[in-house]
TrEMBL record:
Alphabetical UniProt keywords: NADP
Tagged with keyword Cell membrane: no
InterPro entries: ADH-like_N, ER, GroES-like_sf, NAD(P)-bd_dom_sf, Zinc-ADH_QOR/CCCR
Domain Enoyl reductase (ER): 8-324
Organism: Janthinobacterium violaceinigrum
PANTHER family xref list: QUINONE OXIDOREDUCTASE
Name of this protein: Zinc-binding dehydrogenase
UniProt GO molecular function: oxidoreductase activity
Xref: SMART domains: PKS_ER (SM00829)
Length: 328
Protein backbone atom coordinates (compact mmCIF):
# COMPACT_ATOMS: atom_id res chain seq x y z
CA UNK A 1 0.00 0.00 0.00
CA UNK A 2 0.96 3.65 -0.33
CA UNK A 3 1.28 5.67 2.85
CA UNK A 4 2.37 9.20 3.69
CA UNK A 5 5.09 8.93 6.33
CA UNK A 6 6.53 11.54 8.69
CA UNK A 7 10.16 10.68 9.44
CA UNK A 8 11.25 13.99 11.00
CA UNK A 9 9.27 16.73 12.72
CA UNK A 10 8.88 20.00 10.80
CA UNK A 11 9.89 18.22 7.60
CA UNK A 12 7.85 17.12 4.56
CA UNK A 13 6.01 13.81 4.74
CA UNK A 14 6.96 11.36 2.00
CA UNK A 15 5.11 8.65 0.09
CA UNK A 16 6.33 5.16 0.95
CA UNK A 17 5.25 1.68 -0.17
CA UNK A 18 4.52 -0.50 2.87
CA UNK A 19 2.97 -3.94 3.47
CA UNK A 20 -0.76 -3.99 4.09
CA UNK A 21 -1.23 -4.59 7.84
CA UNK A 22 -3.35 -7.48 9.08
CA UNK A 23 -6.00 -7.17 11.81
CA UNK A 24 -5.52 -8.81 15.17
CA UNK A 25 -8.22 -9.77 17.68
CA UNK A 26 -10.86 -7.05 17.99
CA UNK A 27 -9.50 -5.14 15.02
CA UNK A 28 -10.65 -4.45 11.46
CA UNK A 29 -8.66 -3.75 8.33
CA UNK A 30 -10.08 -0.65 6.63
CA UNK A 31 -9.53 0.35 3.01
CA UNK A 32 -9.26 4.06 3.68
CA UNK A 33 -11.28 6.44 1.54
CA UNK A 34 -10.73 9.73 3.34
CA UNK A 35 -8.69 11.28 6.14
CA UNK A 36 -9.92 14.27 8.12
CA UNK A 37 -7.48 17.10 8.84
CA UNK A 38 -7.45 18.66 12.30
CA UNK A 39 -5.27 21.40 13.82
CA UNK A 40 -3.71 18.67 15.97
CA UNK A 41 -2.42 16.88 12.86
CA UNK A 42 -0.40 19.93 11.88
CA UNK A 43 0.92 20.36 15.42
CA UNK A 44 2.06 16.73 15.50
CA UNK A 45 3.80 17.17 12.15
CA UNK A 46 5.58 20.27 13.46
CA UNK A 47 6.69 18.51 16.64
CA UNK A 48 4.69 20.84 18.88
CA UNK A 49 2.17 18.36 20.31
CA UNK A 50 4.01 16.27 22.92
CA UNK A 51 0.67 15.45 24.59
CA UNK A 52 -0.19 13.33 21.51
CA UNK A 53 2.93 11.20 22.18
CA UNK A 54 3.94 10.80 18.52
CA UNK A 55 6.55 8.20 17.61
CA UNK A 56 8.59 8.49 14.44
CA UNK A 57 8.31 7.28 11.77
CA UNK A 58 4.60 8.05 11.90
CA UNK A 59 1.58 7.86 9.62
CA UNK A 60 -0.61 10.78 10.67
CA UNK A 61 -4.35 11.24 10.33
CA UNK A 62 -6.55 10.95 13.41
CA UNK A 63 -9.93 10.75 11.65
CA UNK A 64 -10.72 7.98 9.17
CA UNK A 65 -13.54 6.82 6.92
CA UNK A 66 -13.50 3.82 4.62
CA UNK A 67 -14.64 0.28 3.93
CA UNK A 68 -13.99 -2.81 6.04
CA UNK A 69 -11.67 -5.12 4.09
CA UNK A 70 -11.03 -7.85 6.70
CA UNK A 71 -12.03 -8.75 10.24
CA UNK A 72 -9.88 -9.81 13.16
CA UNK A 73 -10.91 -12.56 15.53
CA UNK A 74 -13.92 -11.75 17.68
CA UNK A 75 -15.28 -8.86 15.62
CA UNK A 76 -19.02 -9.22 15.16
CA UNK A 77 -20.12 -5.57 14.96
CA UNK A 78 -19.09 -5.10 11.32
CA UNK A 79 -18.93 -7.16 8.13
CA UNK A 80 -16.56 -7.02 5.19
CA UNK A 81 -17.82 -4.28 2.87
CA UNK A 82 -19.33 -2.13 5.63
CA UNK A 83 -18.49 1.56 5.59
CA UNK A 84 -17.11 2.82 8.89
CA UNK A 85 -15.65 5.95 10.42
CA UNK A 86 -13.93 6.96 13.61
CA UNK A 87 -11.19 8.74 15.48
CA UNK A 88 -8.89 5.78 15.38
CA UNK A 89 -5.14 6.52 15.10
CA UNK A 90 -2.43 8.98 14.15
CA UNK A 91 -1.15 9.47 17.72
CA UNK A 92 0.80 7.49 20.29
CA UNK A 93 2.47 5.29 17.72
CA UNK A 94 -0.84 4.07 16.26
CA UNK A 95 -1.05 4.20 12.47
CA UNK A 96 -3.25 7.00 11.19
CA UNK A 97 -5.39 7.43 8.10
CA UNK A 98 -2.94 8.93 5.58
CA UNK A 99 -2.49 5.50 3.99
CA UNK A 100 -4.47 3.26 1.67
CA UNK A 101 -5.14 0.71 4.42
CA UNK A 102 -5.14 0.75 8.20
CA UNK A 103 -5.86 -1.59 11.09
CA UNK A 104 -8.04 -0.08 13.79
CA UNK A 105 -9.79 -1.19 16.96
CA UNK A 106 -13.38 -2.02 16.00
CA UNK A 107 -14.67 -0.47 19.24
CA UNK A 108 -13.50 2.97 18.08
CA UNK A 109 -15.55 2.81 14.87
CA UNK A 110 -19.18 3.34 13.94
CA UNK A 111 -21.17 2.66 10.75
CA UNK A 112 -21.39 5.56 8.31
CA UNK A 113 -25.00 6.82 8.02
CA UNK A 114 -26.52 6.42 4.56
CA UNK A 115 -27.00 10.17 4.24
CA UNK A 116 -23.32 10.90 4.89
CA UNK A 117 -20.56 10.72 2.28
CA UNK A 118 -17.24 9.18 3.27
CA UNK A 119 -15.61 12.61 2.93
CA UNK A 120 -18.13 14.07 5.39
CA UNK A 121 -17.69 11.09 7.71
CA UNK A 122 -13.92 11.58 7.79
CA UNK A 123 -14.37 15.19 8.88
CA UNK A 124 -16.58 14.45 11.85
CA UNK A 125 -15.15 12.13 14.55
CA UNK A 126 -12.65 14.17 16.57
CA UNK A 127 -14.69 17.36 16.55
CA UNK A 128 -18.00 15.68 17.40
CA UNK A 129 -16.55 13.46 20.12
CA UNK A 130 -14.85 16.50 21.66
CA UNK A 131 -18.10 18.48 21.59
CA UNK A 132 -20.09 15.57 23.04
CA UNK A 133 -17.64 14.87 25.87
CA UNK A 134 -17.74 18.52 26.91
CA UNK A 135 -21.44 19.23 26.65
CA UNK A 136 -23.00 15.85 27.42
CA UNK A 137 -20.50 13.92 29.55
CA UNK A 138 -19.10 16.85 31.56
CA UNK A 139 -21.66 19.67 31.57
CA UNK A 140 -24.83 17.55 31.09
CA UNK A 141 -26.52 20.13 28.89
CA UNK A 142 -30.30 20.00 28.85
CA UNK A 143 -33.31 21.85 27.51
CA UNK A 144 -33.59 25.37 28.85
CA UNK A 145 -29.88 25.86 29.55
CA UNK A 146 -28.12 28.94 28.24
CA UNK A 147 -24.94 27.86 26.46
CA UNK A 148 -22.08 30.00 25.18
CA UNK A 149 -19.71 28.43 22.66
CA UNK A 150 -16.45 30.26 21.98
CA UNK A 151 -15.39 29.78 18.36
CA UNK A 152 -18.81 28.69 17.17
CA UNK A 153 -17.89 28.37 13.49
CA UNK A 154 -14.75 26.29 14.12
CA UNK A 155 -14.38 22.53 13.99
CA UNK A 156 -15.39 21.64 17.54
CA UNK A 157 -17.41 24.84 17.84
CA UNK A 158 -19.86 24.12 15.03
CA UNK A 159 -20.44 20.64 16.45
CA UNK A 160 -21.01 22.03 19.96
CA UNK A 161 -23.48 24.63 18.71
CA UNK A 162 -25.57 22.06 16.84
CA UNK A 163 -25.44 19.58 19.71
CA UNK A 164 -26.58 22.17 22.25
CA UNK A 165 -29.37 23.36 19.93
CA UNK A 166 -30.49 19.74 19.45
CA UNK A 167 -30.76 19.36 23.24
CA UNK A 168 -33.12 22.34 23.44
CA UNK A 169 -30.64 24.84 24.90
CA UNK A 170 -30.57 28.54 24.10
CA UNK A 171 -27.22 28.90 22.37
CA UNK A 172 -24.90 31.84 21.86
CA UNK A 173 -21.62 31.64 19.96
CA UNK A 174 -18.67 33.96 19.48
CA UNK A 175 -16.93 34.48 16.18
CA UNK A 176 -15.74 37.07 13.69
CA UNK A 177 -18.16 39.07 11.58
CA UNK A 178 -17.43 36.74 8.65
CA UNK A 179 -18.78 33.77 10.62
CA UNK A 180 -22.06 35.38 11.61
CA UNK A 181 -24.20 33.76 8.91
CA UNK A 182 -22.75 30.33 9.64
CA UNK A 183 -23.41 30.64 13.37
CA UNK A 184 -26.94 31.96 12.97
CA UNK A 185 -27.81 29.29 10.38
CA UNK A 186 -27.08 26.66 13.03
CA UNK A 187 -29.57 28.22 15.42
CA UNK A 188 -27.25 30.20 17.70
CA UNK A 189 -27.18 33.89 18.51
CA UNK A 190 -24.03 35.56 17.25
CA UNK A 191 -21.57 37.50 19.43
CA UNK A 192 -18.73 39.36 17.71
CA UNK A 193 -15.71 38.70 19.90
CA UNK A 194 -13.82 41.59 18.31
CA UNK A 195 -16.34 44.27 19.24
CA UNK A 196 -17.89 42.83 22.42
CA UNK A 197 -16.59 42.59 25.97
CA UNK A 198 -17.33 39.77 28.39
CA UNK A 199 -19.11 42.11 30.77
CA UNK A 200 -21.08 43.53 27.87
CA UNK A 201 -22.46 40.29 26.43
CA UNK A 202 -23.04 38.75 29.85
CA UNK A 203 -25.12 41.80 30.76
CA UNK A 204 -26.95 41.91 27.43
CA UNK A 205 -27.82 38.23 27.11
CA UNK A 206 -28.10 37.01 30.72
CA UNK A 207 -28.90 40.11 32.75
CA UNK A 208 -25.47 39.85 34.34
CA UNK A 209 -26.06 36.36 35.76
CA UNK A 210 -23.85 34.51 33.27
CA UNK A 211 -24.33 31.44 31.08
CA UNK A 212 -25.20 28.03 32.49
CA UNK A 213 -22.52 26.41 30.33
CA UNK A 214 -19.54 27.98 28.57
CA UNK A 215 -17.63 25.81 26.08
CA UNK A 216 -14.20 27.20 25.23
CA UNK A 217 -12.71 25.83 22.00
CA UNK A 218 -10.05 28.54 21.68
CA UNK A 219 -7.92 28.39 24.84
CA UNK A 220 -5.56 31.01 26.23
CA UNK A 221 -7.15 34.35 27.05
CA UNK A 222 -10.51 33.06 25.85
CA UNK A 223 -10.55 30.46 28.63
CA UNK A 224 -9.78 33.19 31.18
CA UNK A 225 -12.71 35.17 29.74
CA UNK A 226 -14.91 32.08 30.00
CA UNK A 227 -14.48 32.03 33.77
CA UNK A 228 -16.01 35.51 33.91
CA UNK A 229 -18.98 34.45 31.75
CA UNK A 230 -20.14 31.47 33.84
CA UNK A 231 -23.42 31.69 35.71
CA UNK A 232 -23.36 32.77 39.33
CA UNK A 233 -24.01 29.86 41.71
CA UNK A 234 -23.31 26.83 39.60
CA UNK A 235 -22.21 27.74 36.07
CA UNK A 236 -19.96 25.24 34.30
CA UNK A 237 -17.00 26.05 32.05
CA UNK A 238 -15.67 23.34 29.72
CA UNK A 239 -12.54 23.60 27.57
CA UNK A 240 -10.83 21.31 25.09
CA UNK A 241 -7.77 23.60 25.07
CA UNK A 242 -7.04 24.04 28.75
CA UNK A 243 -3.26 23.86 28.36
CA UNK A 244 -1.35 26.51 30.25
CA UNK A 245 -1.66 28.46 33.48
CA UNK A 246 -4.93 30.17 34.32
CA UNK A 247 -6.33 32.34 37.11
CA UNK A 248 -9.30 30.58 38.70
CA UNK A 249 -10.28 33.50 40.93
CA UNK A 250 -13.06 34.70 38.61
CA UNK A 251 -14.49 31.16 38.45
CA UNK A 252 -14.29 30.76 42.23
CA UNK A 253 -15.93 34.15 42.79
CA UNK A 254 -18.93 33.00 40.75
CA UNK A 255 -19.16 29.62 42.58
CA UNK A 256 -18.83 27.95 39.18
CA UNK A 257 -16.96 24.81 38.10
CA UNK A 258 -14.54 23.74 35.36
CA UNK A 259 -14.03 20.54 33.35
CA UNK A 260 -11.30 19.71 30.89
CA UNK A 261 -11.81 17.55 27.81
CA UNK A 262 -8.93 15.38 26.56
CA UNK A 263 -10.36 13.44 23.64
CA UNK A 264 -7.09 11.63 22.94
CA UNK A 265 -7.10 9.76 26.25
CA UNK A 266 -8.75 6.49 25.10
CA UNK A 267 -6.26 6.10 22.24
CA UNK A 268 -3.29 6.96 24.42
CA UNK A 269 -4.35 4.87 27.41
CA UNK A 270 -5.90 1.94 25.56
CA UNK A 271 -8.99 2.29 27.77
CA UNK A 272 -12.47 3.53 26.92
CA UNK A 273 -12.45 2.76 23.20
CA UNK A 274 -16.06 1.62 23.24
CA UNK A 275 -17.16 5.01 24.56
CA UNK A 276 -15.89 6.72 21.41
CA UNK A 277 -17.72 4.26 19.17
CA UNK A 278 -20.89 4.82 21.19
CA UNK A 279 -20.59 8.61 20.89
CA UNK A 280 -20.35 8.34 17.10
CA UNK A 281 -23.51 6.25 17.10
CA UNK A 282 -25.17 9.16 18.89
CA UNK A 283 -23.90 11.39 16.10
CA UNK A 284 -25.57 9.04 13.63
CA UNK A 285 -28.93 9.56 15.35
CA UNK A 286 -28.60 13.32 15.07
CA UNK A 287 -27.52 13.08 11.44
CA UNK A 288 -30.47 10.83 10.59
CA UNK A 289 -32.79 13.29 12.35
CA UNK A 290 -31.42 16.20 10.30
CA UNK A 291 -29.98 17.92 13.40
CA UNK A 292 -26.28 17.63 12.62
CA UNK A 293 -24.22 18.58 9.59
CA UNK A 294 -20.49 18.89 9.10
CA UNK A 295 -19.09 21.88 7.22
CA UNK A 296 -16.57 20.87 4.55
CA UNK A 297 -14.03 23.03 2.78
CA UNK A 298 -14.67 22.58 -0.94
CA UNK A 299 -11.03 22.00 -1.91
CA UNK A 300 -9.86 18.49 -2.80
CA UNK A 301 -6.55 16.95 -1.76
CA UNK A 302 -4.93 13.53 -2.22
CA UNK A 303 -2.08 11.72 -0.50
CA UNK A 304 0.47 13.50 -2.66
CA UNK A 305 -1.02 16.92 -1.89
CA UNK A 306 -1.87 16.35 1.76
CA UNK A 307 0.83 18.88 2.66
CA UNK A 308 -1.34 21.50 0.93
CA UNK A 309 -4.25 20.54 3.19
CA UNK A 310 -1.99 20.99 6.21
CA UNK A 311 -0.89 24.38 4.86
CA UNK A 312 -4.51 25.44 4.44
CA UNK A 313 -5.20 24.43 8.03
CA UNK A 314 -2.29 26.52 9.22
CA UNK A 315 -2.90 29.65 7.15
CA UNK A 316 -6.51 30.05 8.28
CA UNK A 317 -7.96 29.81 4.77
CA UNK A 318 -10.15 26.78 5.50
CA UNK A 319 -13.89 27.35 5.26
CA UNK A 320 -15.02 24.21 7.00
CA UNK A 321 -13.23 20.94 7.73
CA UNK A 322 -10.44 19.90 5.37
CA UNK A 323 -10.36 16.33 4.06
CA UNK A 324 -7.72 14.33 2.18
CA UNK A 325 -9.16 11.90 -0.38
CA UNK A 326 -7.00 8.82 0.06
CA UNK A 327 -8.84 6.60 -2.42
CA UNK A 328 -8.98 7.93 -5.97
Amino acid sequence: MQALVLTSFAAPMTIEHLPVPQPGPGQVLVRIAASGVNPLDTKIAAGTAPHARPRLPAILGIDVAGTVAALGDGVTTFHVGATVYGMAGGIGGIQGSLAEYGVFDAALLAPVPESLSLREAAALPLVFITAWEGLMDRAHVQAGDTVLVHGGAGGVGHMAVQLAVAQGATVFATGSAASRDTIEAMGARFIDYRTSTVDGYVAEHTGGMGFDIVYDTVGGATLDASFKAARLHGGHVVSCLGWGTFDLSALTARAASYSGVFTLLPLLSGQGHARHGAILREANKLIDAGKLRVRLDARRFGLRTAHDAHAAQLDGSARGKLVVDVAD
